[in-house]
Here is the input.
Amino acid sequence: MMKDPIELVRKNILALAPYSTARDEYTGPIGIYLDANENPYDNGYNRYPDPHQKALKARISTIKGVPTENIFIGNGSDEAIDLVYRVFCEPRIDNAVSIAPTYGMYKVAAATNDVEFREVQLGVDFSLDVEGLLAAADENTKVMFLCSPNNPTGNAFPDEDIERLLVNFGGIVVIDEAYIDFADSEGWLSRLARYPNLVILQTLSKAWGMAGLRLGLAFAREDIISLFTRVKYPYNINGITQKIVIERLGYDMSEQLAELKEQRGKVLKKLSENPLVRAIFPTDANFVLVKFDDPRGVYDRLIEGGVIVRDRSKIKGCEGMLRITIGTPDENRKMLAILDGMAAK
Ligand SMILES: *Cc1c(COP(=O)(O)O)cnc(C)c1O
Here is the structure.
């Protein structure tokens, strides 16, 4: 079943000669840069940033235990999602398969790339329909998007299910691990070398606390990573982001992570005691999906109290549900107090 992933690549992409930046040929010590039409007066930002993000990749390689050749750095995970389509999917011919409900960007990026997007509904307990996903694929299905732990449902999918898809689907399997730091399972990074068709997405936007800097990661076989690198904009990660991310990757996030997980437990417990709550779903992420009889009423009341949550109640499979992010202890207390006040009426 499994093809060489390079056979799945669009022909125009395979034939692409990469744009070479002004400084690509120069490897000697710092000289006088008259090659890139920059303003020569140093203000900290007058030079183009490193298009290969060498220092940043080295740091991420150490933290993740993955060679730099297997790492792509994007302007958010959204850039990597878009690149998956641009590299593998021929517009109007190829298609992608994914789960529903899930993260909206897979579908949006499919649409902007004019690629058909096939959704396979999760079970009522949000379990993966492995047979359904395989059945939805045909000879033009190049990519399958999975998200584990899944947004907005919160659950991580069992390894056995994902492995069956990796082995039996003949295209690229993308596993979006945006929330993996909040999960008990370790994720797929250490098994990257075992599956030639595996692309893992991670991000610094969630557990690492750097959503404002825009930095997403893709991990895959070296030849897939080089294709992403060839197609990306040369200076996709700006200089400030590269610098500050390297700095912030030196911070130990374990205390915050532990507190967020502890808070998640407390929020789940308090919600389960609230009579307005119809159901709460198991979560491996930093949010919880909660079902109410009157989700809009609850949403509006929270807004009145200055708390905004995500209304997912119109989405198929999420009827009646709001997605609530775990905040600081104080923020969570205020959110829960509003719900308690509403239930007491
Ligand atoms: C938040 C989120 C991301 C992060 O996207 P960035 O562009 O890296 O900020 C990616 N995937 C999922 C499923 C998410 O929920």
Notes: Residues 254-344 form a domain with the Aspartate Aminotransferase, domain 1 fold (CATH 3.90.1150.10). The pocket of pyridoxal-5'-phosphate is lined by residues 76-78, 103, 147, 151, 176, 178, 203, 205-206, 211, 216 (CB under 6 Å).
